[in-house]
Amino acid sequence: MKNIKNSFFYIAVIGGFSFLIYWILGIGIGLEKGRDIIIKQSKLTQWNEFVTSLIHNLKHPLAILLAQIVTIILVARIFGWICKKIGQPSVIGEILAGIILGPSLIGMYFPEFSAALFPKESLGNLQFLSQIGLILFMFVIGMELDLKVLRNKAHEAVVVSHASIIIPFALGLGLAYFIYEAFAPKGIQFASFALFLGIAMSITAFPVLARIVQERGIHKTKLGTIVITCAAADDITAWCILAVVIAIVKAGSFVSAMYVIALAIVYVFLMIKLVRPFLRRVGDLHASKEKLSKPIVAIFFLTLIISAYAAEVIGIHALFGAFMAGAIMPENIRFRNIFIEKVEDVALVLLLPLFFVFTGLRTEIGLLNDPYLWKVTGVIILVAVIGKFVGSMLAAKFVGQNWKDSLIIGALMNTRGLMELVVLNIGYDLGVITPEIFAMMVIMALVTTFMTGPALDVINWAFKKNVSEVPVEISDISKFKVLLSFGNPERGISLVKLANSMTKKMNNNASVTAMHLSLSNEIHTFNVSEHEKESFAEIKVEAKKLNQPITTLFKVTNDIDADIAEIANKGEFDLLLVGVGQSIYEGSLLGKILGITTRIINPDRILSQVTGKENLFENSPFDEHTSQVIAKSKVPVGVLLDKGLSEIKNVFIPIFSENDSFLINYAQKLINNSGAQVTIIDAEQHVKNTHELKEIIRLIEQTAPNHIHVISKKVIEREFLKEQHLMLVSIESWKNLIDSKSLWLSDIPSALVISNEG
Q1: Do residues 443 and 541 both lie within one domain?
Q2: Spatial separation of the C-alpha atoms in residues 186 and 171, rounded to whole Å
Q3: Cα(333)–Cα(349) distance, integer angstroms
Q4: Which end of the chain is more exposed for a tag (fewer CB within 10 A), N or C?
């Protein structure tokens, strides 16, 4: 009755007011008399009018900008993913994406498409947006620098850092002397050209270096601490020098430059002595997400914008102001982490790729159309590597590092990445460097960043001391070893309970290792130790409750799936446990169990299909990540489908084939260690007809009477399932259950799906 009433009301309101609108428009026509209204008569057909309007809309500046953003993000993400897969920083792929979309490739072979997507008049909008992205990025870089580390670390880090700046800076000036006449823009003084070439040679990409250090697992070592400190000191020093160089170039004369530098010193003094204490006070009072309200966020963003504006007006560039604003943010780690999360996604995912492509649009590799120009490019790369790699290496060796660590420091400090592009674009905008030199230096940035990973591999190979990711105390254990890998603490707690139920009474004959991996692009340099501590806090509490000794293993990685399998294989574990969350049970029957109601295009899956590793029409019974772990593991893998696992007392095991017999071994562990009651569902009479299986079960009954029994049923009642806490099932049987769409699956408790062997 209520629905009928609502329907009548809806019809009355919509119909009545529609008639009123029509009536007002009708009588309004009479008001047009005497106003010389001209009705345009188009000679085009209605379809042609539509097409003309559509073309006009496509050429609108906003439409062009949005099309550019969509194209840039897609291409940058694809190339970034490709580089990650070959062990390179994603920034290299994003830089390559910019070059490919620019005149070097698309512009050369598809000029009409390039002109339509990147018309010259639209580049101004793209540049301003990319500058906003850079300002936010430099703000994040400033916040990622831990100034406490710089104050507390050994003197040797500063020595190495400053040597890694002054040596390549001097070599850059020497190079400028030889190429000034041939390549410097007309009207540019030698000092301006030489200073920019020097600073471009001496820059280090702190973000890329920090992530490489984390991914290589050396961030906790003395070497990792030294190289991170060197890079941080390098960053601060280089940006201060760059600000001075910009001031000199913009001022035009030495005396004017001194005024700019003096004003810049006043600006820095006010930021440190006046603004920083104020922000620290605000940060201490609002260090949680609940307290960090929009007005408070506005204060910090205003600080960022005003600082960038002041630096730009003074004449030392807005990016230095953004960097300075980040560096003086409150040192409270939790506060910085919250604020970085607010900024980073927009800055790195949306706006920063625009800068890469804008740089690519400026990079015309086609200008290097002469062997001589490529020789000059080679010389630039050689000078860059000698200055940064060799300079840092010799300085590290001088302060007491061994040859291996000195070489590693040199290789890492030679990483340039995005920071190099920032410097080059500033020089290009100021007219200090020509398009030819710009292209050469971009190539140098790519080469020196690309060579970092291979150089580290060669160094480790040469000294034959690869650091094992698995602790020695785990690798040497010859007993039953369980590795559990968790993404969030809630899942980890369930996995600890499960591992404990299999090893509780084995005393020293078993070990449990809890592992957590974090993606390098989701964790910040200053926050690694804190993140590790928080990741294992709840797991350790649960382990203490269960009286379960555990070893923790933490790693920052570029590929979680591959590293989980690799660590399990190298540690020669007897069982790898991974978890799948309860959220996957929402939706349809398959969605409740598998989480496949939403299919996301996964590059790994596409690659596997193209290379023939995966059947194009095969539906995996797990999400993509879990399937990758199972495929790469050489040890048995148990996938826990967690539906709120609280205890493990009643367990049932459906046996559908002789290959499922290995599950009895796990049933025996649960009985012996946690006194579980195990029910074998002999659906196909395999237990009844197999003497070996019956004998194994009989032996278990002798040692643990009334803890295991067999029932022969194909259909499982809902009442039985309600009494169960856990189902053990093989991967092959699990696939068959999914394919057959067994109705009782929706009522199962938590399930542990186990592979027989890797």
Answers
A1: no
A2: 23
A3: 23
A4: N
Radius of gyration of the chain (CA): 32
Residues 164 and 299 in one domain: yes
Neighbours of 488 (CB within 10 A): 12
Same-domain pairing of 418 and 502: no
Residue 386 pairs in a beta bridge with none
Angle, helices 155-183 vs 391-398, to 10°: value is: 160
Which tens digit of pLDDT belongs to each residue from 137-181? 888 888 877 666 555 555 667 788 888 889 999 999 999 999 999
The first and second tokens of residue 211, run together, are 């992530």
Q: Where in the sequence is the domain holding 710, given as residue range(s)?
A: 476-754
DSSP structural state of residue 646: -
Q: Residue 299 pLDDT > 70, yes or no?
A: yes
DSSP state letter for 521: G
What is the separation of C-alpha 613 from the centre of its chain, rounded to a whole number of angstroms?
A: 26
In a domain, 123, yes or no: yes
Provide the pLDDT confidence category of residue 304 given band limits of 50, 70 and 90.
very high
Look at residue 589 and tell me if it is in a domain.
yes
pLDDT digits (tens, 9 = 90+) for 217-241: 676 667 777 787 787 778 778 878 8
Residue 591: the pLDDT is 47
Residue 199 belongs to a domain with what CATH number?
1.20.1530.20
Residue after which a domain boundary falls, among 437, 463, 489: 463
Query: Token digits for 606?
Result: 């596409």
Nearest residue to 196 (alpha-carbon basis) of 159, 247, 231: 247
Residues 121-134 as b/e (b if ≥16 CB within 10 A, e otherwise) read ebeeebbebbbbbb
Assess if residue 54 is contained within a domain: no
Q: What are phi and psi of 430, to 5 degrees?
A: -80, -5
CATH of the domain at 668: 3.40.50.12370
E-strand spans in 630-748?
A: 637-641, 650-655, 677-682, 708-711, 726-730
Ordered alpha helix ranges (H), 153-285: 155-183, 190-202, 206-215, 222-251, 254-270, 276-285
